[in-house]
Structures
1.
Amino acid sequence: QVQMVESGGGLVQAGESLRLSCTTSGLNFDDYYMAWFRQAPGKGREGVACISRAGRGRRYGDSLEGRFTISKDSAKNALYLEMNSLKPEDTAMYYCAAGGRFSLDEGDFSYWGQGTKVTVSS
C-alpha cells in the first residue's frame, strides 16, 4: 500500500516558477533515495533530480542548468521540486520515485507516483 502522489503541476508561462510536491505513505521514507523524473510527449523518461536519504546530497540532470532544486521533509514524508526559470522544453509529466540508489536511472527506483503535468507556454 505504498502511495506516492504528486501535485503542483499546471500551466505557467516561460520564465515563471513552480513547486511540485510528492506526498508519500506506506514506506519508510528516509530509507529510500527519492527522485524526480519527467517524460515529455514522445520522449523517454528523464532523470531530473535525486536526493540522498539524509537529504544532504543532491544531483540533477545536466540539462537543468541549476534551475531546479530538490528537497525533502522527513517529518511530512514529502518530496519537493522547485522549478525556476521554466522553459517550454520543461513541459512534461513529472513523477516522483523512491528507490535504492542515488541515481537518475529509472531502473533504480521501485515506487512511483502517478505524475503531475507541467506545461510551460512561450
2.
Amino acid sequence: QVQLLESGGGSVEVGGSLTLSCTASGLTFGDYTIAWFRQAPGKEREGVLCLNRGGGIASYLDSVTGRFTISRDNAKDTLYLQMNALKSEDTAMYYCAAVQARWCSSQIADYSYWGQGTQVTVSP
C-alpha cells in the first residue's frame, strides 16, 4: 500500500528555519513527481513547490521564493522542504503529494497520493 508520511513540523519563531521531510513507501520514488502543499486556517490548500521526476522544479507562491527549497533523495525515498526566514504567514499544515507523471502541477486533483500533513507554526 502506498503511504506518504510527513515529519519535521513544529513551532518556530519568525525568521527561523525548519526542514520538512516526506518519506514514501509502497512506490518507486524515482518514478514520481512530488510536491508540497499547505493549508492555513480558514484557507484552501495551495501548492507551494513541486519537483518532477526529471529534476525540474516549479514554484507556485511568490511569497516563498528565495526562502523555501525543495529537494529529493530517491535512495532514501524522501522529499524535503527547507524553509528559511519563516514568517507568521507561513503557518499552515504542510502536505506532500505524489503522482506518477512527468510534469509538475499545482492542482490537488492531479495528485494520486497524499500524506496526512505536518503542522508548522511560526510565532509572530
3.
Amino acid sequence: QVQLVESGGGSVQAGDSLRLSCAASGRAFNRLALGWFRQAPGKEREFVTTIAWSGAIIYYSDSVKGRFTISRDNAKNTVWLQMNSLKPEDTAVYYCAAATSEMPTTRENQYEYWGPGTQVTVSS
C-alpha cells in the first residue's frame, strides 16, 4: 500500500511560480513511477507529467512543456512539481499519483494510488 499527500498549492498571479510537493509512505514507493494530474472546474481530470522511479524517463503534456518540471528523491520519498510562468488556465486541483509499475505512463487508469489533491489558483 502507498499513501500520498500533496502540499504547496495556493493563489498566485499570472507569470508567478509555485512548487508543489508530494510526500509518500509505503515500502514500495521507490519502485513505482509517479505522476501529476489536474482537474479544472467543470472539466475532466487530465495528465500533467510523470517520472520513472529512477528519474531517467520523464513525460510532459504539451500544455505544460517548457514551464513545469517534475523531480523526485526516493531517499526522501518525495516528488515535486515546479511550476513557472503560470497561466490562468493552469487553475485546477492538482493530484499526485503512483503508477502500478516502475515505468511512467500518461494513462490515468495505470495509476493505482492517489493523493487528496491541492488547489492552485492563477489570477490574471
4.
Amino acid sequence: QVQLVESGGGLVQAGGSLRLSCAASGRTFSGYAMGWFRQAQGKEREFVTAISWSGSPTYVSGSVKGRFTISRDNAKNTVHLQMNSLKPEDTAVYYCAAADRPGSYFRGQDYDSWGQGTQVTVSS
C-alpha cells in the first residue's frame, strides 16, 4: 500500500549515465526490500537489482554488474538507481518495486507495490 513515483528516465547515448529515483508515499517507507526491474520491447520482465531495508546486502543482475548501483535513503523515503556506461541493450521500461515481507529478491511476484515505470532509451 505504498505509492511509488519514479523520475529520471529519458534518452541517452551509449556510454552515458542516468539516475533514476523512486519516491514513496502513502505510508512510512519501510519494509523488507526495494528492487528495480525492467522490461524491453517484446521481452519478459527481468530482475535488475535489489536492496534490503538496511541497505545491505544488495543484489545485482550479472548483465548490469559494475555499471548500475542501487541505494536507499530511508529518511527521505527514496530509492535510487545510478546507471553508468549505458548500452543499447539496456533500453527498457524500468520499474521500481517495494516488498513489505520476506520473499525472493529476484521474483517480481514477491513484491507488493510497483511504480508506473519510466522509459530508458539508449542510442548507439
